[in-house]
């Protein structure tokens, strides 16, 4: 099979021909149709997350069909269309798994980091961590929901759990934010989009999706926000967001990696403001989010790239060269929407 594997010495992906994977006990082999390009993939390539699997194939927003079953798999059948998210496995035994917090598992597996991911024509996955996908979404529309959508949803619920949120700020208007904005607006919230300074494309997308305001992250909202979620991996945004929320407001750091947070006066945190972080996701998140997103009309704005252009897609993501999400497609990809394919 063709795959794009990480060449650690040069921090780039290389096209390689590898033997087709074989399903182990409890695993399935998927024919990959589409795989989203997530900012976490950049962190894997850049080495920000520490050591993963040597020569790893990144990619954890995978949509594919089941090609073969390993011993003991009973929940899936050949031909089923499923998604594979970032959390590729959990031990089921540690205190966090027993408490229903598998996202905090002490011995987790992560797709595209500690096990091979979806920047390939085929991938092996634990059958119990494959997510059934609703039929109302094409492959390239479904892929970004499997991490950008899910992590945004988890962060949003955390932002809203203490007090009612009517005014929501999203810092970093990329894949996750543009998906969450649609759900939040459908729930009646007024969404404010904070982007890189001068990012006209992201600001235009935010307004087109129904955000009440869009501007640079260095700008302050006219009225205090009830909550803010930071998707950009920029620690300097934390004190900015804390100053933007009202008394009792919440700021959620939604990324897996962030640059150092600078010092800030305690007054920015006082008056019961909360600063919290989100880690990974759970299968329960997916079961709740996917039908809810579909019902709310959430649709990813996608720029599609051929699998062999994975480095280009990552470079474009780093540079902010597109608005919305990027998705890699293979020859097995189906139902592409030409209006969404900018390649």
Report on this model:
The chain is of the alpha/beta class. The chain has 2 domains: about 1-145 and about 300-340, Quinone Oxidoreductase, Chain A, domain 1 (Alpha-Beta Complex); about 150-275, Rossmann fold (3-Layer(aba) Sandwich). It has helices at about 40-45, 95-100, 140, 150-160, 175-185, 200-210, 235-245, 285-295, 310-320; strands spanning about 1-5, 10-15, 25-35, 60-70, 80-85, 85-90, 110, 120-125, 130, 165-170, 190-195, 215, 225-230, 245-255, 275, 300-305, 325-330. It starts with a strand and ends in a 14-residue tail after the last strand. Mean pLDDT is about 95; it is low at about 335-343.
| Secondary-structure element string | EEEHEEEHEEEHHEHEHEEHEEHEHE
Count of all domains: 2
The CATH architecture term of the largest domain is Alpha-Beta Complex
Q: Please state the overall shape, judged from the principal axes of the Cα atoms.
A: globular
Cα Rg:
19 Å
CATH topology title of the largest domain: Quinone Oxidoreductase, Chain A, domain 1
Distance between the termini: 23 Å
Low-pLDDT runs: 334-343
Largest sheet: 7 strands, mixed
Number of helices: 9
Got a strand count? 17
Helix content range: 10-25%
Q: Structural class, from secondary structure content? A: alpha/beta
